[in-house]
Known about the structure:
Layout: H1 7-10, H2 14-21, E1 34-37, H3 44-57, E2 65-69, H4 72-90, E3 103-105, H5 106-116, E4 128-130, H6 132-145, H7 158-170, H8 175-182, H9 190-207, E5 209-211, H10 212-224, H11 226-233, E6 238-241, H12 249-258, E7 265-269, H13 284-292, E8 298-300, E9 304-305, H14 310-321, E10 332-333, E11 342-346, H15 349-365, E12 373-377, H16 384-392, E13 397-404, H17 409-422, H18 427-434, H19 442-454, H20 458-464, H21 473-486, H22 494-510, H23 514-528, H24 534-543, E14 547-549, E15 563-567, E16 576-581, H25 598-612, E17 615-624, H26 630-635, E18 657-660, H27 666-671, H28 680-687
Parallel strand pairs: 1-7, 1-8, 2-3, 2-6, 4-5, 6-7, 9-10, 11-17, 11-18, 12-15, 12-16, 13-15, 16-17
Antiparallel strand pairs: 13-14
Helix pairs in contact: 2-3, 3-4, 5-10, 5-24, 6-7, 6-9, 7-8, 10-12, 14-25, 15-16, 17-18, 17-21, 17-22, 18-19, 19-20, 21-22, 22-23
The protein binds adenosine-5'-triphosphate and magnesium ion.
Adenosine-5'-triphosphate is lined by residues 11-13, 16, 40-46, 270, 273, 306-307, 573, 575, 613.
Amino acid sequence: xxxxxAAYLETLNPEQRRxxxxxxxxxxxxxxxxxxxxxxxxxKTNTLAHRxxxxxxxxxxxxxxxxxxxSRRAAAEMTRRAERIAIKAxxxxxxxxxxLPWAGTFHAIGARLIRRYAETIGLDQQFTIxxxxxxxxxxxxVRHEAGLSKAPKRFPTKGTCLAIYSRAVNAESSVEQAxxxxxxxxxxxxxELKALFQxxxxxxxxxxxxxxxxxxxxxxxxxxxPAIAAEMGALFDHVMVDEYQDTNRLQASxxxxxxxxxxxxxxxxxxxxxxxxxxxxEVRNILDFPKTFSPPAExxxxxxxxxxxxxxxxxxxxxxxxxxxxxxxxxxxxxGDGALPRLVSIRDEAEQAxxxxxxxxxxxxxGATLKSQAVLFRTSHHSAALELExxxxxxxxxxxxxxxxxxxxxxxxxxxxxxxAQNPRDRVAGFRAAQLLPGVGPGSASKILDxxxxxxxxxxxxxxxxxxxxxxADWTGFVAAVAAIAHGQGGWPAEIxxxxxxxxxxxxxxxxxxxxxxxxxxQLEQIAASYPSRERFxxxxxxxxxxxxxxxxxxxxxxEDYLILSTIHSAxxxxxxxxxxxxxxxxxxxxxxxxxxxxxxxxxxxxxxxxMTRAKDDLRILLPQRFFTHQQRAHGDRHVYAxxxxxxxxxxxxxxxxxxxxxxxxxxxxxxxxxxxxxxGARMRAMFR
Length: 689
Ligand code: ATP
Ligand code: MG
């Protein structure tokens, strides 16, 4: 392809441009590895998008570019950006979005490559994927079978068992190391846990299912086999990774397996934004990256922030400057002056919700869309009061990183039928699907499924099973539907229609408000139609489900305007004009669960930094005076007066505008004068005197 005067390169600053052009040979051939390490809003993601477009403009084949991002949304966004730039460079016919098939998360891309090489590595290609909840159900089953659920109460719960297992796998460490690093109170159970994990791994293999961690683990194992690694690596000329600071050891070893000499590898990240160490992310990955290869990677640092106004950036810089360890330097704002970020003191969480709703509407009056505003919080349940307030006031919203559309029971039911048809040995799916039938309980379901799992021809075995005594004709209908789907009758997406038509008559018996739920299922069928195949649909919705919305009827269409609610973790990489950070108080930030080790405290500081650096023009941190922390909730304490987060020290206060809401007016003050004291306890005692 011919590259016209490269106007798209002129929008970049000199360092960004160096990163875009580094190691791009004739016809877009790959050169030495590249690391871009720089602070928030410095244009790392934007630089990667330009690099994709530039490579294509120079003649690289977009189908041979692997682009790894932290969410599916981020992959879609990056693809869109690259497309826009490519069109600027090469004209309207340069659309590359459809020819960038390898853009996605590590997990989703892993699933595709594992399927591609399934036969070589002894896996059945029809494997299905367990989400965290399914994995914990399976862990529980295995725990039960091993007799450990009858062990004394202190044996770790199924969730903890899975977390320990996951930690060991992702950190490439032994069970002992994982326990010592993150679960010291479970160390007494090391032998039992090892036996349990052994049984869990065997169960997954028997059932031909992979959990989330397996997607990285199998991929890393393939990348460690020289012959497979070479073939896999040869699929891609360029491998690019965004948010590299949040990758773990497995992910790093996948990359070196694919590209042992680092040629064509480009990663970007910011060590000050590393917030996933609880999932064994390893900030050392990014710091060690240059040394991993010979010749070493080119390092590009960026020093300008294009996102936030100077006052917002100053405040965020002040917070992160107290971090103990940090590689990236402070940035300077290219945006210039603006309003000070605000610290807003409020009575409690209910008032906080009112304040946010009021302010969001005020902003909208002033011309800002809802979509340009976001509310960020530490953990998903912190938005409960706000969600109620938004629903009450009819303000539409979408919640990222919270309860998902697909978590709804009826949606999971329908998916379990599809999954069971895809892989009849998937016991968790089968267990759920079979019990949708009247007269089928855990006992009869288990009996049938155990026979199916053990069979070399699972579908045939399923069809040959006698109907459970009280299920009769319903059973026949069920297995017929499963078989029809398994055989791909009508093709995709007609198969999901088959499942829905079988399931819908049962809805009313199983769930309340069957009408609303039926609408959801119809919507799911529509979503399904945008995927090329059943297995792609199942894989991708399991890995990265659509987000929940306020109207409970599945994901919104694109052109609607809605407010964004998001956990800070899920807000990574994004930006909004206005950002509200809920509960900026000690006990929440840092969480009182996270103040033990100093490493945890540092991660909490980075979390606040990530939250603050999402704002472009307007940042407000809310300080409810009454806030129940985890521990206070657990102990049932009533009176707590929360203090401003310790990460915003007294010395930093002049970087903020401090205010109370509602503003103290004479009238308010008078109305809120101290209440007369009443000793109700004394009255009660007097009652029986
Ligand atoms: P984060 O660390 O939060 O992921 P980032 O470093 O990836 O941030 P981007 O999201 O790529 O930063 O860019 C931040 C904003 O700055 C975007 O709105 C982007 O369009 C803009 N931007 C980046 N580079 C430039 C530039 N050279 N000129 C103008 N705007 C830019
Ligand atoms: Mg980014």
